[in-house]
Specification:
The complex is a heterodimer of chains A (312) and B (1043). Chain A has 312 residues and is mostly helical. Helix content of chain A is 63%, strand content 2%. Chain A has twelve helices and three strands. In chain A, helix 3 runs antiparallel to helix 4, helix 7 packs parallel to helix 9 and helix 9 crosses helix 10. Classes of the chains: A mainly alpha (312), B mainly beta (1043).
Chain lengths: 312, 1043
């Protein structure tokens, strides 16, 4: 029976490696190199462009390099081009407002009388969905105060234009959900101090609300934020002053003490408030260890289920 | 049912008819009927009600506006309601809408007409009787769902009843056999209404037995619930039928109270419904089955719920002819008008070539442009023009004094023979000049007098004396038939002994010009009237005394027309006559022994052999052309025009058999002319099984408004990098009218341009590698030396791209159940071949698919908590066999699968599921309310992720097609959603809707139609220009490069 397990394990591993082979064959490596070369060249080309044209042009490169960064074993050149495009975009005043305007214009166009008159009164959200998908997919890679403000202002936009309502026809397409959801996902990527720790491809229940509260605190000046990989504390006006940081820390401490007092009185469990800048930076080794543990656990489960199936 | 207080419209009612749309021939026409009742008629304790009824109908030749009246009717709560009652027609849909301000309208009821009456309660006339003491208060009435059904006994031994209806879940046709038996009393009662549970059932019972369906249509939740109520109600219905209780009208629910002081109702009438989408509207199919005629093929019957009644694979609409005009409904511009019979077909765009008077040949009288013939030769008074070449007409050469003068030409036929008028010297003396007709056997020839005998003094010769034969009035032109016949005034001169001439025997007669090298003409019989000759056997009279009636001869005389005909045509359905003006009456078609109004041709002045008419400007349409039954202004038919050719002084003066058109711009002092050449691009599919996948979009221009992406042009996709688009140019060209096509960066058969001098020439179009992908270039078109000022054809460059697709077969692991793997997964070769046949010719993309090895996942594990909602109906549970998703941004089973298996190197990921049909979960108010099944595939557009049902054996019975092929088609369609966006061409929510494009048989050509249409046998693969643009944008923005 042990040999059967080994065969199973080999088959399983071969599937895993087969998948990896799909991702990193020679052809894909070549495509990556071409892609990197293209955007290195495009960066130079963009220097002659006006700001609006430049934002639109470079945003595709940013999204493309960001996409490559989601792949295992991507080349260091990808990081380099990514950062260069990112810096180029952030240095343009209005880089985030550009996307906000694009989203608003696309929505206004979808609802305009001339559009509706050509569609028997029905709304086509197709272009709007494309525009806002691209907007948020770009903004989540722009670690700037302007981008945080742009994204944060969408957190309350809960309207999901694609949500079916009673009487609607079934459709075979699903759009990207509400702008609130897209904004939440974008902030997840931008901000180091996540109020919620999920990194799934979907939002956990309550995650949007947590980010909405987070942004309210930011707007009120009761909280600062940091971008991934940048130790600087920011508020919505730029890097936060030392005086403001001290003020926030003092307020937090006082609030925490009050909270502890209340909970002692009520006998409830103490839940610690996340610190202003409390989260250690994420590191690949930790992720690998976790992944390894999950793999081992999965293998263990796999073999155990196999034994159960065979009645051992 | 006895009527209480029947009351027709009271005198206080004012009825205004306001035509909202300009064209009476389109289905989008609306007629608004506004009726106001004085509030004195209706005083209520708290509410004064103004009543308005607005009827909107499609103005077919048949008037579908329903007859209506007011009547007091008992509601089902026993109150008496003041009702608006209207008659329904079978197969016509009615929507009752209500408003308080005439601006915002809310749908109140939707009714599928079956011939009965429908009552809409407007206010309570008498309250319901009080309940007996001790009766608990009644619950408020629930709103009923209206369902129209057809019941027919099932033929064969199995028995039962065949029930057909329009689906409550998806609007598609439903046909189901149920085990019930229906009462024989039905044969006397074809229409019956009653309410059972929450349904208003409207039954239509034709009585004829039909074969039951091989497989019942799959039921959605709404259809299923309705059918259950119906089956449970059959005994009660039978009882009522047996008791001969005729219900042809509903008992309405009581009118709800309304705090506003005014209420308005309107009824929208939609006669374009085609439930089975076979190209024949529902009302037509009801009519055909009722009258027993209209089928063009044995075995095909009218059935609004069955698209192919004889099972031959051809939709019934292509085999039914409701109006009996010989054109099948699916191709008929109006199946309700037998004078509209020229079939719908590819419509042309026009290249407009201005006639520049550069040689001075026509400069003496530049405004006197007369006619164009079928070779595109334009006749001026003293010259002809063709493809930029002027040919002055030679003056008469006979006589010795040199005083012969050319008054000018009058008419030209398609053989380039010209007749005109000049001065003839009866003897060598300027005093003896007289008017005489001349003819030119060719534009270059010396003219000869039209005379019977070599000695003009001994016989007769022709003349025109009519002042009303005028160049600038299209109603005052003469014709020279292609066989050289015309009517003229005939004269004879006689010289006396002193050499003085006297004129005698002036009369009308026909003349036939000589053929070949002959010089003498033949005089025909004397006539009292001037006649115009069109072709052998077709002529019509023109009375100089302007008496109103005209006469047409084919060759025997037809009954008198009530107008002087301007033009008469021999058509496949009879003789068609156009009046001189719009006020002279309706055009007439002589068919079945009588002249009949032909309203489609109102405004028409001339027509080509394929039924394309030109007309007078009307309803804000300048220089309109009748294309596929719709008048189209010159700015649409000849797109890209600017300047004088777009203003209101443009008119079209005549057209030829093959479609050349002569345009003139007045006023006279600055009159200019132009020639319009019709151009059609005929598609040449690389694979005949993929008819519409050609890279040509001559389809979008058929819509009312094709939008800025199309700009009224015909479009050709020019591939760069690899591939070519094969096209065929259909245009009435000849060796005298060489047409040169060119465009920057575009190659024609590998050359920088191409010259075409014949109809139906085929050639290849490619783009040079230096052309930027996405670039749009109008073709430069030259007729001889003259360049078009319109831009009828555009070319879009698209570079060769490879779209990488990862296909993941996914099995369903559910604890305690057998692993469910997908039954049907295409191979790489099948998928690549199919997708490339659909997409490569249209957007120059090739597909590189990878079929990833099967993975079994525990994906079927969503719970109501994942949707953050209560689930009182227990829709969601682990292992329920459904891929439950509601889009949005929370956890869904589809997002889980994607999270596990996504291949980031692919442009598109496709998951072929085993063990799970696909559906969306509808949640509101924190409760899961209902679910909607999505037949075979679903796309998350932001993520470029597609889910395909891998267990589609169940589907086979529904579609009767090969399931593997259906899966490939579904994958192609879902990939289309990634490329071109959300929504569907037929449902109004598409990114590329094409306004007013409703004929289902044509919409079905598109790849991006909804599931209901893709199930039809003629579903196509067409991507339109707007979709090319969207695909180009998507391909340019792919995150993996190769943009």
């Amino acid at each position: 029976m042990r040999s059967v397990y080994i065969i199973f394990a080999l088959v399983f591993c071969s599937h895993v490696f087969a998948d990896m082979e799909i991702i990193w064959n020679l052809d894909n490596r070549k495509k990556e190199a071409t892609h990197v070369d293209l955007w290195n060249a495009n960066l130079k080309k963009s220097m002659a462009m006006q700001s609006t044209e430049k934002i639109e042009f470079l945003s595709l490169g940013l999204r493309g390099m960001a996409h490559r960064k989601t792949m295992n074993d991507y080349s260091p050149e990808v990081d380099s081009v990514y950062q260069s495009i990112q810096s180029a975009l952030i240095s343009i005043p209005g880089h985030a407002d550009y996307f906000v305007n694009e989203v608003k214009q696309a929505k206004a166009h979808a609802l305009s009388p001339e559009e509706l008159s050509g569609r028997d009164g029905k709304i086509s959200w197709s272009n709007y969905n494309r525009v806002r998908s691209e907007a948020f997919d770009t903004l989540e890679h722009l670690p700037s105060v302007e981008a945080v403000r742009a994204v944060g202002d969408f957190l309350d936009d809960e309207e999901d234009p694609n949500a079916l309502r009673p009487g609607d026809e079934a459709t075979d397409t699903l759009g990207p959900g509400s702008n609130s959801g897209l904004a939440t996902m974008a902030l997840r990527s931008l901000i180091q101090d996540d109020p919620v720790k999920s990194k799934n491809g979907w939002l956990e229940l309550g995650e949007k609300k947590a980010w909405q509260q987070w942004y309210e605190q930011i707007k009120l000046g009761n909280r600062t934020f940091r971008f991934e990989g940048d130790p600087t504390e920011y508020d919505l006006n730029g890097p936060a002053s030392g005086q403001k940081l001290a003020h926030i820390t003092r307020d937090r401490k006082r609030d925490a003490e009050r909270q502890v007092g209340r909970e002692r009185t009520s006998g409830s469990t103490v839940v610690a408030e996340p610190a202003v800048a409390s989260k250690p930076s994420k590191s690949m080794p930790v992720a690998l260890v976790i992944a390894g543990l999950v793999l081992l656990g999965s293998l263990g489960w796999y073999f155990r289920k196999g034994r159960e199936r065979e009645g051992i | 049912m006895s009527k209480l207080s029947p009351r027709r419209w009271p005198k206080a009612v004012a009825v205004d008819y306001v035509r909202l749309s300009n064209s009476p021939s389109t289905r989008k026409d609306s007629v608004l009927v506004l009726c106001k009742l004085s509030f004195l008629l209706f005083t209520m304790k708290y509410l004064t009600t103004f009543l308005s009824l607005v009827l909107m109908s499609m103005a077919f030749a048949r008037d579908f506006r329903p007859a209506s009246h007011l009547e007091n009717i008992p509601a089902y709560n026993s109150s008496i309601q003041e009702c608006y009652v209207f008659e329904t027609a079978p197969g016509v849909a009615y929507t009752v809408e209500v408003s308080n301000n005439l601006s915002n309208w809310t749908p109140q009821d939707e009714i599928y007409g079956l011939g009965g009456e429908y009552a809409v309660a407007m206010r309570e006339f008498t309250p319901p009787p009080p309940p007996p003491p001790g009766t608990p208060p009644a619950n408020p009435p629930t709103l009923a769902t209206n369902v129209s059904l057809r019941l027919q006994p099932a033929s064969g031994t199995a028995g039962g009843v065949v029930v057909a209806w329009r689906s409550l879940d998806h609007d598609g046709p439903m046909i189901v056999r149920i085990a019930a038996e229906i009462d024989p009393g039905w044969n006397q009662i074809p229409i019956f209404w009653n309410r059972f549970a929450d349904y208003n059932f409207y039954f239509w019972h034709p009585g004829v037995a039909v074969a039951p369906p091989a497989v019942n249509s799959p039921l959605g939740p709404k259809d299923s619930a309705m059918l259950a109520v119906l089956e449970a109600s059959v005994p009660a219905i039978n009882q009522q039928i047996a008791a001969s209780i005729l219900h042809s009208r509903n008992a309405p629910p009581p009118a709800p109270p309304d705090p506003d002081s005014k209420r308005f109702w309107r009824v929208k009438v939609d006669s374009s419904l085609d439930t089975d989408q076979d190209g024949s509207p529902d009302w037509a199919e009801f009519e055909i089955v009722a009258r027993g005629t209209g089928s063009m093929v044995p075995g095909v019957i009218g059935d609004a719920f069955n698209s192919d009644t004889n099972g031959d694979g051809i939709p019934d609409g292509q085999q039914l002819d409701t109006d009996g005009d010989g054109t099948p409904d699916a191709f008929d511009p109006d199946p309700n008008d037998n004078t509209a019979f020229y079939p719908l077909g590819p419509i042309p765009r026009y290249a407009l070539f201005p006639i520049q008077d550069t040689t001075g040949a026509g400069a003496s009288q530049p405004y006197e442009v007369l006619q164009i013939n079928d070779k595109s030769r334009v006749l001026y008074r003293k010259a002809t023009w063709i493809a930029g070449v002027w040919t002055p007409l030679a003056p008469p050469s006979n006589g010795s004094s040199g005083m012969q003068l050319l008054a000018g030409a009058y008419a030209i036929n398609d053989n380039d023979v010209i007749i005109g008028k000049g001065r003839y010297e009866l003897r060598a003396d300027p005093e003896y000049l007289t008017n005489l007709l001349y003819f030119w056997s060719s534009p270059q020839a010396v003219p000869l007098p039209v005379k019977q005998n070599a000695d003009i003094n001994q016989a007769y010769a022709g003349d025109f004396v009519y002042p009303y034969l005028s160049a600038n009035d299209p109603t005052r032109k003469t014709f020279l038939s292609n066989d050289g016949i015309f009517t003229g005034v005939t004269r004879k001169w006689t010289a006396d002994a002193d050499g003085n001439f006297s004129e005698k025997d002036v009369h009308y007669s026909t003349w036939t010009l000589p053929t070949g090298a002959g010089s003498l003409s033949t005089k025909g019989p004397v006539s009292q009237e001037m006649q115009f000759h069109k072709s052998p056997g077709l002529s019509w009279n023109f009375k100089p005394d302007f008496t109103p009636n005209g006469k047409v001869f084919i060759p025997a005389a037809l009954p008198d027309l009530p107008f002087q005909p301007l033009q008469v045509f021999a058509t496949p359905q009879g003789t068609l006559a156009f009046p001189e003006s719009d006020t002279a009456g309706s055009p007439k078609l002589f068919t079945q022994g009588a002249w009949k109004d032909a309203p489609l041709y109102q405004h028409a002045t001339d027509m080509s052999d394929d039924g394309i008419a030109i007309g007078r400007s009307h309803d804000n349409l300048i220089a309109p052309i009748l294309l596929n039954g719709k008048w189209t202004g010159i700015t649409r038919s000849a797109p890209g025009l600017t300047g004088i050719w777009t203003d209101s002084n443009v008119r079209l003066s005549n057209t030829t058999a093959s479609g050349w058109i002569l345009a003139q711009h007045s006023p006279v002092a600055t009159d200019k002319a132009a020639v319009l050449l019709p151009i059609r691009i005929i598609e040449s599919p690389p694979d005949p099984s993929f008819l519409e996948a050609t890279g040509v979009d001559a389809y979008s221009i058929k819509s009312e408004d094709s939008g800025p992406a199309v700009s009224n042009k015909i479009w050709i996709m020019a591939p760069s990098g690899s591939g070519s688009t094969k096209v065929q140019l259909k245009s009435p060209l000849n060796d005298k009218t060489p047409l040169e096509l060119s465009a920057d960066g575009i190659k024609f058969d590998d050359g920088p341009n191409i010259t075409l001098a014949a109809d139906n020439r085929k050639f290849d179009i490619t783009a040079s590698s230096s052309s930027n992908s996405g670039m749009e270039i109008p073709l430069t078109i030259k007729l001889g030396t003259v360049e078009t000022v319109s831009r009828p054809i555009g070319v879009k460059v698209m570079k060769r791209r490879t779209i990488k697709v990862s296909v993941h077969p996914v099995g369903s692991l559910v604890e305690g159940k057998t692993t469910n793997e997908p039954d049907t997964v295409p191979t790489k070769a099948q998928l690549d071949e199919f997708l490339n046949k659909v997409y490569t010719p249209q957007i120059n993309a090739v597909f590189d698919t990878t079929i990833v090895p099967l993975r079994n996942l525990e994906w079927d594990k969503a719970t109501p908590a994942d949707f953050g909602a209560a689930d009182p109906n227990n829709y969601i549970s682990v292992g329920n066999g459904w891929l439950d998703t509601n889009g949005g941004d929370q956890y869904n089973e589809d997002t889980y699968i994607r999270d596990q298996l996504n291949d980031a190197t692919a442009d598109i990921n496709i998951y072929i599921l085993g063990g799970g049909r696909i559906r969306t979960v509808l949640t509101w108010d924190n409760t899961i309310r209902t679910v909607k099944s999505i037949v075979l595939g679903m796309t998350r557009v932001k993520e470029n992720t597609i889910f395909i049902d891998g267990d589609i054996g169940w589907y086979h019975g529904l579609i009767g097609n090969d399931t593997g092929m259906e899966q490939l088609r579904t994958i192609a369609h879902e990939i289309g959603h990634c490329l071109v966006g959300e929504g569907h061409a037929d449902t109004g929510d598409s990114a590329v809707k094409l306004k007013g494009f409703n004929p289902t048989n044509l919409v079905q050509e598109r790849l991006m139609v909804s599931g209901n249409l893709t199930r039809k046998p003629v579903a196509g693969f067409r991507l339109v220009k707007g979709e090319w643009d969207e695909a180009e944008k998507w391909m340019k923005k792919r995150l993996n490069g190769d943009n």
